[in-house]
Amino acid sequence: MKVTVKGVVKYVLMLALAGVLLYFAFRNISWSDFVTGLKSCNYWWILATILLGLVSTILRGFRWRLMMLPLNKNITRRESYDAYAICYLANLALPRSGEVVRCGLIANTGKASFEGALGSVVLERTWDMICLAVICVAMVFFTRFGDFLVEKMFNPVVEALPFNAIWLVVLLIAICLGIYFILKANKEKVSRSKFGAKMIKLWHGLVGGVKAGFKMDHKWAFHIYTILIWLSYWATSLFTIYAFPSIADFDVMDALFLMVVGSLGWVVPVQGGFGAYHFIVSMTLVPIYGVTQSTGLIFATISHESQVVQMIICGIISLISVAVYKKKIKNTVQPVTPQRSDSHEKTEKAE
Question: Where are the chain's structural domains?
Answer without folding.
Answer: 32-328
